[in-house]
Amino acid sequence: MHKKNQFIVLWTLLVFTLFPLQAFAVDYSISKVTIDAQVTSNGTVAVTENHTYKFQDDFNGIIREIVPKKGTSIHEFTASEQGKELKVEQDEELYNIFRSGENETITIELRYEIQGAVDTYADGAEFYWPFFDDRNDSDYEQMTITITPPADSEKTAFIGYDGAYQTGSLQSDGGVQFDMGKVLAGSNGDVRVIFDKHLFPSLPQKDGLVLADLAADKEQMANDAAALLAKQQVGKSIGNWLIPAAGAALLAFFAWAFSHARKTKQQAKPDTPHFFVPKQKMSIPATLYFTKSSILTPAVTAAALMELVRKQKIEQLSEEKFRLIDRNTEFIHEATLIELLFDKVGDGEIFETKELESYTKQELNHASYTDSITLWQQGIQEEVKQYELYDKHPLLRGIVGTSGLVFGVASIFFGFLELFPMMVVSIIIAIGFIGFCFYSPITYKGHVIREEWKQLRTAMKNLEPTAWNHLTQDEKMRAFSYLLGADEKSTHLTTLSFTTAYSDSAFADFGLFYNPVLLTGLFVAAYSSTSTSASASGAISAGGGVSGGGGGSGAF
Length: 556
Known about the structure:
Blueprint (H helix, E strand, L loop, with lengths): L2 H16 L9 E12 L5 E11 L2 E10 L5 E9 L2 E2 L1 E5 L2 E9 L2 E11 L2 E4 L2 E6 L10 E9 L8 E4 L7 E3 L5 E8 L7 E5 L15 H58 L15 H8 L6 H13 L3 E5 L2 E4 L7 H14 L4 E3 H9 L4 H21 L7 H23 L3 H18 L6 H17 L4 H5 L3 H14 L6 H14 L9 H15 L19 E6 L1
Parallel strand pairs: 1-11
Antiparallel strand pairs: 1-2, 2-8, 3-7, 3-19, 4-5, 4-8, 6-7, 9-10, 10-15, 11-14, 12-15, 13-14, 16-17, 17-18
Helix pairs in contact: 1-9, 2-9, 2-10, 3-7, 3-12, 4-12, 4-14, 5-7, 6-14, 8-9, 12-13
C-alpha cells in the first residue's frame, strides 16, 4: 500500500478511536422531556413524563428504561398520546411503547408510580431519585424535572448532582423545579429533595438526620466547584499559549512537508521531451505497485507472466500454453508465481490457461490459490521496500510523535478540568502530530521512477510508429507489460489499440502469441472464483445511578 493510503487509513482509525460513533437502528432526536413527580403523603410518587421525539425515518415506538433504586419498585406503568392509550410491553426494566409512523414529531405521555421512594427522618422526609443515569443512550435537548410535595412545604431543602447541579429552583408551594437544559447521553443527574416531615405522618421514621447530610454535600460540592474553578484558571492560562503555539508548529510542519514534496517532484520530472522507456530499476510488477496502485489487480498478474517471458524464464508455445525454462529467478515473487502456475496448476514443466480455470473452479483449491497470490503480493511489496523509496525522517518523527503524546495527555488534563473546547482542540492537534509521525515522503529516486513511467503512459496514448520502432525489443516488451498491468480492464481502449499497433513487433524476438483479453481475463476469472467476504457486528454496555437506580430512553 502506498504511504499516502497508509496515512489516510491511520488518520481515519485515530479519529474513530478517539471519537467513537454509536449507530442507532432508528434516526431520531428527543427535543424535550418534562418529568412531574407528585409526592403523596403515604410515600408513593406519581410520575408523569412527556417525551417529544422527532423521527427522521420509519419507527415502531419508543423505549423507556426505569431502573428502581434498591428498596423501591415501579407500578402502574401506562403510555398514551393525546389521551389515546398505547400498547406497552415490559421486559424487566425496559418498557417498549408501540407507536409506529414515519418522519413525525410525536409527544408520548408516560405515567407510573414509585413505591417506597420517600424516607422520613427526624428532621425531614427525603425523595432522592435518578430519573436517568449513564445507561442512557440518547441526548435530551431540553429536560425539566419538577418535584411537588403533598402539601405546601415551608422548609424545603434540595440539591442536584452531576448534570442537575445548580439547576434547581424553589417553587411557591415548596416544590423544586430542576431546569437542566441539554442532557448528554451517558450522563448522571440525580435529584434530592427534603420536605417537611409532618407532611408524611404515616411513614415510619428512620434513624439519623438527613438535612445535615444534604448540607455537607452542598458544602463539599461548593468546595469542589471552587477548587475546579481555580484549576480551570491555571489550565486556561496554560492552554491559551500552548495550543496556539502547537497549532502553529503543526501547520508549519505540514507546510514544509507539502513544499518539500512538491519541490522534489518538480525536480524529478524528465528533462527530455523525447519518448523513451525507463531503464530497468525494479521488476514490472514492483514498478506497477509503486507507480500505479498498491492494489495488485489480475492485470498485474498477467503482466508478471509476460515479465517472466521477457526474462526468458518461461516460453510461450501458443496463446494458451507455456513451458518452464529456468527456475532461477531474481526475485522471490517470481519464484512464487512459477510455483503456482507450473507446480500447483501445471505438471511442473507445462502450464496451460485452461488448467488454471479448472483448478480455481474447485473449491478445495481456493485456499491454496489465495495463499500463493498473497505470498506473491507480499514478495512484490518486499522488493519495493528494499529500494528505500521513502524518507523515514527519524528525528522529525521522534519530535512530532512526542508532541502528539504530550497533547494526548494534555487533552486528558483539559477533560478533567471540564475545559472541553480546549480538550477537543488538543485531541485534534494530537491526531495531527501522531499522524505526521508516520510521514514518509517519496525520495527523489522514487519520484524519478514515478515521473518516468507516468511520461510513458501519457506518451503511449498518441505514440508515433517511428518512435516505437527506435526501441529495442527488450524496451518494447517492458513497455507493453507495464501498459498491460496499468490498465484496470484488459478490454481498455489503450491496451487494445496498442496491442493492434505494436504487439507483433514487441514480441517478435520472444515467439509470443499474445491476446491481452484472453490472458488478463484468465486471472480475473481465477480471482472471482476464489474471492470471499465476511462481516461482523458489535454490542453495547450498561451502568447505574444512585443506589443502583437510573434509566434512559431510546426508540425502535
